Amino acid sequence: MEAVVLKAFGEPENLEHQTVADPVAGPGEVLLEVRACGVCFHDVINRRGSLPRTSVPAILGHEAAGEVVAVGPDVEGWSVGDRAATLQRLHCGACSHCGRGRNSLCKDDTRFFGEEIPGGYAELMAAPVAGLGRIPEAIGWPEAATACCTSGTAVHVVRTRGRVEKGETILITGASGGVGMQAVQLARHDGARVVAVTSSETKAAALSEAGAHDVIVAPELEFARRVREITNGEGVDVAIEIVGSATFEQSMRALAPGGRLVVVGNLETRSVALNPGLVIVKELEILGAYATTKKELQEALELIGRGVLRPWIAGVLPLRQAWRAHQLLEERAVAGRLVLAAES
Question: Which domains does the chain show, CATH number per domain?
């Protein structure tokens, strides 16, 4: 099969288009013909060598959607011809965390597509069914591929972790990315006032189109004062921190008393300084958010099917141009999500 293989950690050019052996569906797995695979900044971090569970050579990609072309042993409920999309990571379904619906905290099966499991930068992939959701017929392949990591993550951060309520004000950093564009739409739909932050003037119009009430263009990533101004000094009830360390302090300063900070991204993989006194006197909550559950994926697909969420596909590139997709992400030149597709 054709695949893009990361031959060594480092630059985008290390993503090399190759012909490799076809995978085989093992026990508990199906073989997917990959129709589309989203390109996430997580992939960029992985390519750089910052994720310790990935070894090279590797096939990246945790946002895959495709058609089942073979079913492995001990698989029930899946048939050839079914349409499937990957979750970011697996879970055992039996531990105490899984029993409480906190699948992303499962420690018994922590495998991640594109890390321990060869991912979707390929024509075929062997996928454990524990990490798959079903795609409705009405949803196209590029939209389905991005649904988990963008729309599903938006459900996870806005509803599950952020507990955003009607009438609250929500701040979203890195709002022009794949997750951000979905979070803007969902928070607006759920009745929140949405303040979106981007570092690029060229992306402001898309954020307004997605539903942001206020768009702050902050090339230097300083926005807390402006947030205070547009909220009449109150601050925001919830901040969705997609950028991470580079904007963490500003997001903390932008919170109202009793505010909630949901941390879902850390693009520069750096640490931050935290003043516990600020957390104490303002009774702030800092909440982590990691991965989409199967239930949240199905909720996201239902929202897409109803037209509540519009998947923001920035472009579809041929599989062999995965390196270019990474390059565009690093240049901050993308509003929404880029998708790779095998050439017919």
Answer: 2-149+292-341 (3.90.180.10), 163-288 (3.90.180.10)
